[in-house]
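Example record for the data management plan.
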Amino acid sequence: VLPDPTRIPDFPTPRSVPFREAMEEDKRIAVQYRPEILVVRLEAKLNDIDLALAENIFLPSLDVEAEPSRKVGDFVLGLGHRFGVQFRFPFLQREARGEQLQAQAQAQRLVLLLNYRRQQVMMDIENARSAVHRAEERVDVSRRALALANTLLKGERTRFKVGATDLLFVNLRERNMVQAGVRLIQARAAYQKALAFSQWAAGTWVRTTTDS
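Corresponding structural encoding:
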């Protein structure tokens, strides 16, 4: 029983790209869109704010104020105002010093974590691109094996027509051709999986979701 071909969609057409160029492009995209890297960058920005606030406590402050006065003695020519100047200089800010050191240590930790995340992403991309490359080779080998099996089947059928072989060998050739077709389908399916893994490793799906 052969199913209707319209009910079985074909695999997408493979888009073969240079191995090294594709890997470098994936790395460039991944640094911008992989969630692991974006999370660390956001944490670093928040920590920079905390560090700026901690360092701001050590700065001297000067407050100047002026307001209308209600005291009779402050009135001059019918006008009454009060002026004030307050200068503050931080001294022995132990709590602020501790917060500053904590924010600085957190900043150093986030730098190391960002480098670690980048190395992980680069490794994912290299593994994914290698898987795509191997899958492409497997598809090519499977396609040539199917073509060879088809050629052998045609030759065996020709021999059967002239009586040079029997039906058993024809059936074996037909079986080999079916198995070669199955291996080609499996190889193409493996290629699509490897391609999906490569897109995940590069963060392409995140970029598509964000742009939409």
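Summary line stored alongside the record: The chain has a mean pLDDT of 81.
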